[in-house]
Amino acid sequence: MDPLGARSPIIDIQTLPCWAHRPEPLLETGLSRELRPDTSISSPFPYRKDINNKVILWKGDVTLLSCTAIVNTSNEALSDKNAISESIHLHAGLELKDELQKLKGCRTGEAKMTKGFNLAARFIIHTVGPRYNAKYRTAAESSLYSCYRSVLLLAREHSMSSIGLCVINTPKRGYPLEDATNIALRTVRRFLEKHGDTIETVVFAVTDLEEATYLKLMPLYFPRSLEEERRSLPFLPADVGNAEGEPVIAERQIRILDKPGIPPYEDESDEEHLELEYIGTHAFAKMEGDIDKQRRLILQGQMSEAAVQKAHQRNYNRWLCRARADDLSGVASLKALYQTGYDKCGRTVVVIVGRNIPVTLIEPDKALLYFIHIMDHIAAREFVMVYFHTLTSEHNHPDSEFIKKLYDIVDVKYKKNMKAFYFVHPTFRSKVMTWMFTTFSVSGLKDKVHHVESLPQLFTLISPEQIDIPPFVLEYDARINGPYQYSCPSSPDL
Description:
This protein folds into 3 domains: about 10-235, Leucine Aminopeptidase, subunit E, domain 1, CATH 3.40.220; about 250-325, no CATH class; about 330-480, CATH 3.40.525.10. It has 15 helices and 13 strands. The protein has helices spanning about 50, 85-90, 95-105, 135-155, 175-195, 210-220, 225-230, 290-300, 305-325, 330, 365-375, 400-415, 430-440, 455-460, 470-480, and strands spanning about 10, 55-60, 65, 70-75, 110-115, 125-130, 160-165, 200-205, 335-340, 350-355, 385-390, 420-425, 450.
């Protein structure tokens, strides 16, 4: 409402363009580089024009939408004073406040409904988003998912044909916008897959600050073509939730005996008794054998190959769980590891910048967790790694124990799809150390390591425009090997 009391115009959602009709900007999600994706790998969110026709991304005040229901984000007492809630109260009128008092509050993650009163929408669905704390990230993820899921289920229960979704995670509650947007989009996508016949339109109503993030992430969950689906696949987060969009939280896994009170099997190395078993479908019902015993059997050579792989996978899953829960922003700020373009065989390229690794300052476990956090979804398909050894010092060299530990954790999952490790600007000492390590410490890696003396040599394998190279590496190579004429995109600020 403006200062003169004139109400802003009501927005008929039928006049808004659906997501399927919005063009695909070349640089919308940073996916404009040409690539040859592995067509054998399908996206968990395939191209669905029928779903895209039901989705609208609109920048504006959710209060103005003419639809069956709009969403209000509030606190547990349903009295929060945020921009969305205040606008809803302003347009709905005083009757809304009286109605909310009858609801006697709302728990975090739940949703309750009132009439729309003076709004263009017939109903208001009120929900309470979580307060974000990095230490309790998994709880916040589950609660935010529950918010969107509860809203959608309530809409389905009351046969609502259209709903205007505000961004539930308000800035005052501190939820990182990109993380929250991933949860919102995938939850709506999964709901429309299962219950699309019960709802005609979902409008994501966003502000100026939120629009860019939604434009960036929408193609991951609502690709508008098969090509956009393929281009988006490498950029999906590691956790895309279960069939409902709910976060998969490994911390809920517990150890429990298959049959408490019954003596253990005589042959405890029997593979079938090391299988994971489930009660129902929830993660907290997962049961597994004695992991310490399994490790001991591995060392004694008494476990089958299949059982060894299962043990490796369980260990990896525990690290992945920590990687998703821990605050790794400090390691990320080093910009020592990042995904870039694709090599000439269409494989994802991952860059490691040796000089940016402060071994004496960084916590080894944090570095390992960050590596897993970045690499988990990349390792699902073929990839290559480029390590810039350029101008590193002894303070940048992880010890062999750390590398061995990393290799042991990711061995089964990563070794198969890592097709090459390019060691750029190696020194004589680093060549000797690499040979000793790949010969005596780890297996299956030696043939994949290739020493690259200059950038022109690297460019025979990876086109210059497909790899972001730190400026100091470019300067060093030009000084040592002479200038090389090529057009290179701006590198990350390292």
